[in-house]
Design goal:
Radius of gyration: 37 Å
Strand content: 5-15%
Number of strands: 2
Number of helices: 2
Shape: rod-shaped
Largest sheet: 2 strands, antiparallel
Helix content: over 70%
Order of helices and strands: HEEH
Strand order of the largest sheet: 1-2
Length: about 110
């Protein structure tokens, strides 16, 4: 429904622009010259080129953001892996500590130093 409303508004704007901007103009594009172009075509073309350029710039920004997030995600996963390895080591040391606590003490020689 919102799309229909936006299309109607855009159509109304385009109709208004085309109704009052029918003058024929000459467009110079570097070495190329196009003559007898209605002014509203120039206006609409400028708007469309601006929208396309802004979309391309936004996509470039999104790509750079994606790579930044991807590198941070790799760092986080490496940190989680290190935490897992350290937790395993701590667990093994706790098991070894319990074994040492519950093992029988070696016989002590009275004549030893």
């Amino acid at each position: 429904m919102l799309n229909i409303i936006l299309l109607l508004i855009a159509g109304s704007v385009l109709t208004y622009i085309s109704k009052y901007n029918l003058e024929l103009v000459t467009v110079n594009l570097g070495i190329y010259t196009i003559s007898n172009v209605p002014l509203f075509y120039v206006i609409i073309g400028s708007i469309l080129i601006g929208l396309v350029l802004s979309y391309i710039l936004q996509m470039l920004s999104n790509i750079f953001t994606y790579f930044a997030i991807r590198s941070k995600t790799k760092e986080i996963s490496m940190g989680k892996e290190e935490i897992l390895n350290l937790t395993k080591t701590v667990h093994q040391l706790e098991i070894e500590n319990e074994k040492l606590k519950h093992s029988e003490p070696e016989s002590i020689d009275a004549n030893s130093l």
